[in-house]
Here is the input.
Amino acid sequence: MSQSESTRERIIRAVVRIMGADGAAAVTNRRIATEAGISLGTLTYHFATQRDLVEAGMAAFVAAETVKFTQLADHVAEGAVDLAEAGEILGAIVTDTGFGGDHIAWFELFVQAARNPSLHVATTDFFETYDRLAVSILRALGVDDAESVAPLAVATLVGLQLRRLAGGGSPDQVVAGMAGLIAALTGPPHSPA
Amino acid sequence: MSQSESTRERIIRAVVRIMGADGAAAVTNRRIATEAGISLGTLTYHFATQRDLVEAGMAAFVAAETVKFTQLADHVAEGAVDLAEAGEILGAIVTDTGFGGDHIAWFELFVQAARNPSLHVATTDFFETYDRLAVSILRALGVDDAESVAPLAVATLVGLQLRRLAGGGSPDQVVAGMAGLIAALTGPPHSPA
Here is the structure.
């Protein structure tokens, strides 16, 4: 990795961290420069506009999640996964943003993307990466037609996570909710293969 | 309704409208006053702080949704609802915010709530109102154990809505996704009663 990439990476991490902690409104050039330990000149050299920064933050986030989720999907594909292990994987997803920030940053980015059509492709990639991991897990758990159920399971996870964050709940609620979904999809009279 | 309540209502509608159009960062006193057609003095008389405004916006939104969802739940409870009618109800929820604004305002409010513990109760009420409507619809569609499935269906709806807004999709995607969830929960070999 070149020095230039490393500085970009530091800037992007700072953006996601600030967004997570204090919201999109707090993402000012001055604050980013302070958090990333660089000069304002260096920042504007790397990112001319706020939109460039948000797009780069989104792209970096998607790339990090893609690596993580691909590793998880490979691990799941290697052997049968039971509900307990699926719960552990989910717990890791629910409590780790991949940026060491809090999860609000995800939703802040989604809200930005909803207002900014140039972010639609990155968001679509992000969700498709989630879908692929969900297919592996659902298939291993014996859910019929994992491909068509996966986007629903991803949506349920996103919705439960947003509900617990906005209502002040714990990550355990999300994991329990997902276990309930799997049970509803595989339980009697619809038993797993 | 007194004149004072009417002014509060106008302010709150302006807050939700601005939030939906341009985000929480755009909710300034000056802009609210302009949009609501009142003086700055009138605004600060009604709401001393930004936090008061966001809390009032959330509470008003929850109250409006509670009325709407209670009416829908009563309507559903009156007779059997088929998938087509459930789809129409969902379509109305997905395309109407109850504030004439766009749906990003909902998610903006949830993100605010995630950062502000004083909004957790309002958020919890909001989701519980959704749950009650979902129980009525799922029961009418013949889903077993509608009470435990309802929060999952609500989470799926929220997640699908966020994904389509952030990815630039259409409301039809959300309605189709929910139809898929109902089919997965009621379809063969798990057929409705």
User: Anything to note?
Assistant: Residues 57-186 of chain A form a domain with the Tetracycline Repressor; domain 2 fold (CATH 1.10.357). Chain A has nine helices and no strands.
